[in-house]
Automatic annotation (TrEMBL):
One of its GO terms (biological process) is base-excision repair. SMART domains: ENDO3c (SM00478). It is an enzyme of class 4 (lyase). Belongs to the type-1 OGG1 family. Signal peptide: none annotated. One of its GO terms (molecular function) is damaged DNA binding. InterPro entries: DNA_glycosylase, HhH-GPD_domain, HhH_base_excis_C, OGG_N, Oxidative_DNA_repair_enzyme. It catalyses: 2'-deoxyribonucleotide-(2'-deoxyribose 5'-phosphate)-2'-deoxyribonucleotide-DNA = a 3'-end 2'-deoxyribonucleotide-(2,3-dehydro-2,3-deoxyribose 5'-phosphate)-DNA + a 5'-end 5'-phospho-2'-deoxyribonucleoside-DNA + H(+). Its EC number is 4.2.99.18. Keywords: DNA damage, DNA repair, Glycosidase, Hydrolase, Lyase, Multifunctional enzyme. This is DNA-(apurinic or apyrimidinic site) lyase. SUPFAM superfamilies: DNA-glycosylase (SSF48150), TATA-box binding protein-like (SSF55945). Residues 140-304 form the HhH-GPD domain.
Length: 308
DNA sequence: TATCCAAGGTAAGTT
DNA sequence: AACTTACCTTGGATA
Protein backbone atom coordinates (compact mmCIF):
# COMPACT_ATOMS: atom_id res chain seq x y z
CA UNK A 1 0.00 0.00 0.00
CA UNK A 2 1.17 3.50 -0.78
CA UNK A 3 0.37 6.61 1.22
CA UNK A 4 0.67 10.26 0.43
CA UNK A 5 -0.55 13.74 1.20
CA UNK A 6 -1.70 16.66 -0.88
CA UNK A 7 -1.34 20.15 0.56
CA UNK A 8 -4.60 21.97 -0.08
CA UNK A 9 -2.69 25.25 -0.02
CA UNK A 10 -0.95 24.18 -3.23
CA UNK A 11 -4.23 23.98 -5.15
CA UNK A 12 -5.73 26.83 -7.16
CA UNK A 13 -8.50 27.74 -4.72
CA UNK A 14 -9.97 26.02 -1.67
CA UNK A 15 -11.13 22.41 -1.33
CA UNK A 16 -13.72 20.78 0.92
CA UNK A 17 -13.72 16.98 0.69
CA UNK A 18 -16.94 16.41 2.60
CA UNK A 19 -18.93 19.02 0.67
CA UNK A 20 -17.56 17.63 -2.60
CA UNK A 21 -18.39 13.99 -1.83
CA UNK A 22 -21.66 14.45 0.07
CA UNK A 23 -23.32 17.05 -2.11
CA UNK A 24 -25.28 14.56 -4.20
CA UNK A 25 -22.93 14.48 -7.19
CA UNK A 26 -21.18 11.19 -6.52
CA UNK A 27 -22.64 8.07 -4.97
CA UNK A 28 -19.51 6.00 -5.37
CA UNK A 29 -17.72 6.68 -2.08
CA UNK A 30 -18.37 5.21 1.34
CA UNK A 31 -17.58 6.88 4.61
CA UNK A 32 -15.40 4.57 6.70
CA UNK A 33 -17.29 5.55 9.85
CA UNK A 34 -20.42 4.05 8.31
CA UNK A 35 -22.35 7.30 8.38
CA UNK A 36 -24.70 7.88 5.49
CA UNK A 37 -25.18 11.15 3.71
CA UNK A 38 -28.62 11.62 5.26
CA UNK A 39 -27.66 14.55 7.43
CA UNK A 40 -25.55 17.14 5.75
CA UNK A 41 -22.41 18.05 7.64
CA UNK A 42 -23.72 16.15 10.62
CA UNK A 43 -20.55 14.46 11.77
CA UNK A 44 -17.65 16.73 10.97
CA UNK A 45 -15.44 16.69 7.92
CA UNK A 46 -12.47 14.51 8.80
CA UNK A 47 -13.81 11.05 7.96
CA UNK A 48 -12.07 8.62 5.62
CA UNK A 49 -13.85 8.14 2.30
CA UNK A 50 -13.27 4.94 0.36
CA UNK A 51 -13.83 3.82 -3.22
CA UNK A 52 -12.59 1.50 -5.95
CA UNK A 53 -11.95 2.88 -9.42
CA UNK A 54 -11.73 0.82 -12.60
CA UNK A 55 -9.21 1.78 -15.28
CA UNK A 56 -9.72 5.22 -16.81
CA UNK A 57 -7.97 5.88 -20.14
CA UNK A 58 -5.17 8.37 -19.63
CA UNK A 59 -5.43 8.33 -15.83
CA UNK A 60 -4.95 4.82 -14.54
CA UNK A 61 -4.65 1.54 -16.42
CA UNK A 62 -5.30 -0.62 -13.40
CA UNK A 63 -8.11 -1.00 -10.87
CA UNK A 64 -7.31 1.08 -7.78
CA UNK A 65 -8.68 0.87 -4.23
CA UNK A 66 -8.22 4.11 -2.37
CA UNK A 67 -9.06 6.01 0.80
CA UNK A 68 -8.84 9.74 1.38
CA UNK A 69 -9.33 12.04 4.37
CA UNK A 70 -9.11 15.79 4.81
CA UNK A 71 -7.42 17.20 7.86
CA UNK A 72 -7.56 20.92 8.60
CA UNK A 73 -9.26 23.73 6.75
CA UNK A 74 -10.46 24.26 3.21
CA UNK A 75 -7.58 26.68 2.50
CA UNK A 76 -4.65 25.21 4.41
CA UNK A 77 -5.61 21.60 5.18
CA UNK A 78 -4.10 18.35 4.01
CA UNK A 79 -5.55 15.51 1.97
CA UNK A 80 -4.18 12.21 3.26
CA UNK A 81 -4.57 9.21 0.99
CA UNK A 82 -3.84 5.49 1.03
CA UNK A 83 -4.10 3.41 -2.13
CA UNK A 84 -2.86 0.40 -4.04
CA UNK A 85 -0.75 2.75 -6.21
CA UNK A 86 0.21 6.43 -6.42
CA UNK A 87 -3.23 7.99 -6.13
CA UNK A 88 -2.38 11.64 -6.63
CA UNK A 89 -3.16 11.77 -10.38
CA UNK A 90 -6.33 9.77 -9.80
CA UNK A 91 -7.55 11.99 -6.94
CA UNK A 92 -6.75 15.06 -9.01
CA UNK A 93 -8.91 13.63 -11.78
CA UNK A 94 -11.84 12.41 -9.64
CA UNK A 95 -12.08 15.48 -7.41
CA UNK A 96 -11.14 18.08 -10.04
CA UNK A 97 -8.21 19.30 -7.96
CA UNK A 98 -6.83 20.72 -11.22
CA UNK A 99 -9.69 23.25 -11.46
CA UNK A 100 -8.86 26.86 -10.62
CA UNK A 101 -11.89 27.17 -8.37
CA UNK A 102 -11.42 30.87 -7.57
CA UNK A 103 -11.21 31.73 -11.26
CA UNK A 104 -14.24 29.60 -12.09
CA UNK A 105 -16.47 31.15 -9.44
CA UNK A 106 -15.21 34.64 -10.34
CA UNK A 107 -16.28 33.96 -13.90
CA UNK A 108 -19.92 33.38 -12.89
CA UNK A 109 -22.35 36.31 -12.51
CA UNK A 110 -22.63 38.37 -9.30
CA UNK A 111 -26.01 37.03 -8.23
CA UNK A 112 -26.91 37.25 -4.52
CA UNK A 113 -28.09 33.63 -4.43
CA UNK A 114 -24.80 32.41 -5.89
CA UNK A 115 -22.73 34.50 -3.48
CA UNK A 116 -24.62 33.02 -0.50
CA UNK A 117 -24.17 29.47 -1.78
CA UNK A 118 -20.45 30.00 -2.51
CA UNK A 119 -19.89 31.37 1.02
CA UNK A 120 -21.80 28.53 2.67
CA UNK A 121 -19.88 25.72 0.96
CA UNK A 122 -16.49 27.21 0.24
CA UNK A 123 -14.20 24.67 -1.38
CA UNK A 124 -16.86 22.40 -2.88
CA UNK A 125 -15.75 21.14 -6.28
CA UNK A 126 -17.44 19.18 -9.01
CA UNK A 127 -16.52 15.52 -9.38
CA UNK A 128 -15.34 13.50 -12.38
CA UNK A 129 -17.07 10.22 -11.65
CA UNK A 130 -16.33 7.17 -13.80
CA UNK A 131 -19.02 7.26 -16.45
CA UNK A 132 -20.79 3.90 -16.17
CA UNK A 133 -21.24 3.99 -12.37
CA UNK A 134 -22.32 7.62 -12.70
CA UNK A 135 -24.89 6.69 -15.35
CA UNK A 136 -26.33 3.95 -13.14
CA UNK A 137 -26.34 6.21 -10.08
CA UNK A 138 -28.45 8.83 -11.78
CA UNK A 139 -30.81 6.32 -13.40
CA UNK A 140 -31.45 5.27 -9.81
CA UNK A 141 -31.93 8.87 -8.69
CA UNK A 142 -35.41 9.24 -10.20
CA UNK A 143 -37.88 10.27 -7.47
CA UNK A 144 -35.41 9.32 -4.75
CA UNK A 145 -33.72 10.99 -1.81
CA UNK A 146 -29.97 11.44 -1.81
CA UNK A 147 -29.39 9.09 1.11
CA UNK A 148 -31.36 6.32 -0.57
CA UNK A 149 -29.63 6.73 -3.93
CA UNK A 150 -26.39 6.27 -2.04
CA UNK A 151 -27.77 3.15 -0.37
CA UNK A 152 -28.73 1.63 -3.72
CA UNK A 153 -25.23 2.10 -5.16
CA UNK A 154 -23.71 0.62 -2.00
CA UNK A 155 -25.95 -2.45 -2.25
CA UNK A 156 -25.10 -2.86 -5.94
CA UNK A 157 -21.39 -2.88 -5.07
CA UNK A 158 -21.81 -5.25 -2.14
CA UNK A 159 -24.02 -7.66 -4.05
CA UNK A 160 -22.26 -7.85 -7.43
CA UNK A 161 -18.92 -6.01 -7.29
CA UNK A 162 -15.49 -7.64 -7.20
CA UNK A 163 -13.67 -7.58 -3.89
CA UNK A 164 -10.46 -5.54 -3.84
CA UNK A 165 -8.21 -5.58 -0.82
CA UNK A 166 -6.22 -2.68 0.56
CA UNK A 167 -4.35 -2.61 3.85
CA UNK A 168 -6.10 -5.73 5.13
CA UNK A 169 -9.58 -4.45 4.31
CA UNK A 170 -11.72 -5.58 1.41
CA UNK A 171 -13.56 -3.03 -0.69
CA UNK A 172 -16.02 -3.64 -3.50
CA UNK A 173 -15.68 -2.26 -6.99
CA UNK A 174 -18.79 -1.02 -8.75
CA UNK A 175 -20.19 -3.88 -10.84
CA UNK A 176 -19.11 -3.78 -14.47
CA UNK A 177 -21.65 -3.48 -17.29
CA UNK A 178 -21.16 -7.23 -17.89
CA UNK A 179 -21.80 -8.07 -14.24
CA UNK A 180 -24.90 -5.87 -14.02
CA UNK A 181 -26.37 -6.99 -17.35
CA UNK A 182 -26.19 -10.59 -16.12
CA UNK A 183 -28.59 -9.86 -13.24
CA UNK A 184 -32.35 -10.17 -13.63
CA UNK A 185 -34.83 -7.39 -13.05
CA UNK A 186 -36.10 -9.19 -9.95
CA UNK A 187 -32.62 -9.47 -8.48
CA UNK A 188 -32.17 -5.73 -8.84
CA UNK A 189 -35.60 -5.09 -7.38
CA UNK A 190 -34.48 -7.04 -4.33
CA UNK A 191 -31.90 -4.29 -3.79
CA UNK A 192 -34.79 -1.80 -3.54
CA UNK A 193 -34.24 -0.25 -6.94
CA UNK A 194 -37.99 -0.37 -7.57
CA UNK A 195 -39.11 0.50 -11.11
CA UNK A 196 -35.53 1.59 -11.89
CA UNK A 197 -34.41 -2.06 -11.86
CA UNK A 198 -35.25 -2.84 -15.51
CA UNK A 199 -33.77 0.52 -16.60
CA UNK A 200 -30.45 -0.35 -14.96
CA UNK A 201 -30.47 -3.88 -16.33
CA UNK A 202 -31.25 -2.82 -19.90
CA UNK A 203 -28.78 0.07 -19.88
CA UNK A 204 -26.05 -2.26 -18.56
CA UNK A 205 -26.92 -4.63 -21.40
CA UNK A 206 -26.58 -1.86 -23.99
CA UNK A 207 -23.12 -0.96 -22.68
CA UNK A 208 -21.95 -4.55 -22.19
CA UNK A 209 -22.99 -5.60 -25.69
CA UNK A 210 -21.25 -2.63 -27.27
CA UNK A 211 -24.53 -1.32 -28.66
CA UNK A 212 -23.76 2.08 -27.12
CA UNK A 213 -20.95 3.66 -25.12
CA UNK A 214 -21.72 6.57 -22.79
CA UNK A 215 -18.17 7.86 -23.32
CA UNK A 216 -19.02 8.66 -26.94
CA UNK A 217 -21.03 11.65 -25.71
CA UNK A 218 -17.82 13.30 -24.48
CA UNK A 219 -16.79 14.28 -28.00
CA UNK A 220 -20.08 15.92 -29.00
CA UNK A 221 -21.28 19.52 -28.60
CA UNK A 222 -23.20 19.94 -25.33
CA UNK A 223 -26.81 19.69 -26.48
CA UNK A 224 -26.04 16.84 -28.86
CA UNK A 225 -24.23 15.04 -26.07
CA UNK A 226 -27.32 15.33 -23.87
CA UNK A 227 -29.56 14.02 -26.63
CA UNK A 228 -27.12 11.18 -27.26
CA UNK A 229 -27.20 9.96 -23.65
CA UNK A 230 -30.98 9.74 -23.64
CA UNK A 231 -30.64 6.62 -25.81
CA UNK A 232 -30.00 4.68 -22.61
CA UNK A 233 -33.07 3.26 -20.89
CA UNK A 234 -34.10 5.31 -17.89
CA UNK A 235 -32.16 8.36 -19.07
CA UNK A 236 -34.07 11.53 -19.90
CA UNK A 237 -32.80 15.10 -20.17
CA UNK A 238 -32.21 15.55 -16.45
CA UNK A 239 -30.23 12.37 -15.86
CA UNK A 240 -28.26 13.02 -19.06
CA UNK A 241 -27.31 16.46 -17.76
CA UNK A 242 -26.12 14.94 -14.48
CA UNK A 243 -23.83 12.52 -16.30
CA UNK A 244 -22.50 15.31 -18.52
CA UNK A 245 -21.78 17.53 -15.51
CA UNK A 246 -20.57 15.07 -12.88
CA UNK A 247 -18.69 12.67 -15.12
CA UNK A 248 -17.93 13.98 -18.59
CA UNK A 249 -16.79 17.51 -17.70
CA UNK A 250 -19.52 19.56 -19.38
CA UNK A 251 -19.34 22.36 -16.81
CA UNK A 252 -22.11 24.30 -18.55
CA UNK A 253 -24.71 21.57 -17.96
CA UNK A 254 -27.49 22.55 -15.55
CA UNK A 255 -29.64 19.55 -14.59
CA UNK A 256 -33.22 20.76 -14.15
CA UNK A 257 -34.31 18.84 -11.07
CA UNK A 258 -37.06 19.72 -8.64
CA UNK A 259 -34.76 21.96 -6.60
CA UNK A 260 -33.51 23.96 -9.55
CA UNK A 261 -37.04 24.20 -10.97
CA UNK A 262 -38.18 25.66 -7.64
CA UNK A 263 -35.22 28.03 -7.74
CA UNK A 264 -36.20 29.15 -11.23
CA UNK A 265 -39.76 29.80 -10.05
CA UNK A 266 -38.73 31.77 -6.98
CA UNK A 267 -35.64 33.62 -8.11
CA UNK A 268 -35.58 33.72 -11.91
CA UNK A 269 -39.19 33.33 -13.14
CA UNK A 270 -38.24 34.82 -16.52
CA UNK A 271 -36.15 31.72 -17.16
CA UNK A 272 -39.19 29.43 -17.12
CA UNK A 273 -39.70 28.77 -20.83
CA UNK A 274 -41.88 25.67 -20.60
CA UNK A 275 -39.81 22.96 -22.21
CA UNK A 276 -36.72 21.43 -20.62
CA UNK A 277 -34.43 22.48 -23.45
CA UNK A 278 -35.56 26.11 -23.50
CA UNK A 279 -35.64 26.58 -19.72
CA UNK A 280 -32.27 24.87 -19.47
CA UNK A 281 -30.83 27.28 -22.02
CA UNK A 282 -32.23 30.29 -20.14
CA UNK A 283 -30.97 29.30 -16.69
CA UNK A 284 -27.64 28.30 -18.18
CA UNK A 285 -27.35 31.83 -19.54
CA UNK A 286 -28.49 33.29 -16.20
CA UNK A 287 -25.66 31.43 -14.48
CA UNK A 288 -23.07 32.68 -16.94
CA UNK A 289 -22.85 29.90 -19.50
CA UNK A 290 -19.44 28.24 -19.41
CA UNK A 291 -19.46 27.31 -15.71
CA UNK A 292 -23.22 27.34 -15.09
CA UNK A 293 -23.08 23.76 -13.82
CA UNK A 294 -20.67 24.75 -11.07
CA UNK A 295 -23.12 27.42 -9.95
CA UNK A 296 -26.00 24.94 -10.15
CA UNK A 297 -24.25 22.47 -7.87
CA UNK A 298 -23.67 25.09 -5.18
CA UNK A 299 -27.27 26.24 -5.40
CA UNK A 300 -28.59 22.67 -5.25
CA UNK A 301 -26.60 21.81 -2.15
CA UNK A 302 -27.26 25.16 -0.48
CA UNK A 303 -31.04 24.99 -0.93
CA UNK A 304 -31.28 21.31 -0.09
CA UNK A 305 -29.46 22.04 3.17
CA UNK A 306 -32.11 24.63 4.02
CA UNK A 307 -30.40 27.79 2.81
CA UNK A 308 -32.14 30.71 1.08
C1' DT B 1 -51.15 1.89 14.46
C1' DA B 2 -52.75 3.21 10.01
C1' DT B 3 -52.62 6.20 6.13
C1' DC B 4 -50.60 9.53 3.32
C1' DC B 5 -46.95 11.80 0.98
C1' DA B 6 -42.97 13.07 -1.58
C1' DA B 7 -38.37 11.95 -3.02
C1' DG B 8 -32.42 15.31 -7.80
C1' DG B 9 -37.82 11.58 -13.44
C1' DT B 10 -38.79 8.54 -17.29
C1' DA B 11 -41.48 5.79 -20.54
C1' DA B 12 -45.54 5.01 -22.85
C1' DG B 13 -49.83 6.33 -24.35
C1' DT B 14 -53.04 10.34 -25.77
C1' DT B 15 -54.29 14.60 -27.93
C1' DA C 1 -44.46 18.41 -29.85
C1' DA C 2 -47.09 19.06 -25.53
C1' DC C 3 -49.74 16.82 -21.90
C1' DT C 4 -51.15 12.68 -18.63
C1' DT C 5 -50.42 8.89 -15.97
C1' DA C 6 -48.28 4.94 -13.86
C1' DC C 7 -44.41 3.47 -11.58
C1' DC C 8 -41.26 0.79 -6.71
C1' DT C 9 -39.94 1.88 -2.22
C1' DT C 10 -39.67 3.86 2.29
C1' DG C 11 -38.82 7.27 6.08
C1' DG C 12 -41.21 10.80 8.12
C1' DA C 13 -45.45 13.49 8.77
C1' DT C 14 -50.21 13.47 9.94
C1' DA C 15 -54.49 11.64 11.84
Amino acid sequence: MERGAIDVGDLAGPFDLQATLESGQSYLWNRADGETYAELHAHGGDAWYETVVDPIPGVTDERVALRVRQEGGVHDGTLHWEASTDAEPLLTHLLRLDDDLDAILDATPDLPLLERAYDAYEGMRLTRDPVFPCLVSFICSAQMRVARIHGMQRRLREAYGDGVSLGGETYRAFPTPEQLSARTEDELRDLSLGYRAPYVQRTAEMVASGEADPLDAADLPYEEARESLTRFVGVGDKVADCVLLFSLGFLEAVPLDTWIRTTVEEYYPDCDRGSYAATSRAIREQFGGEFAGYAQTYVFYHLRAGGE
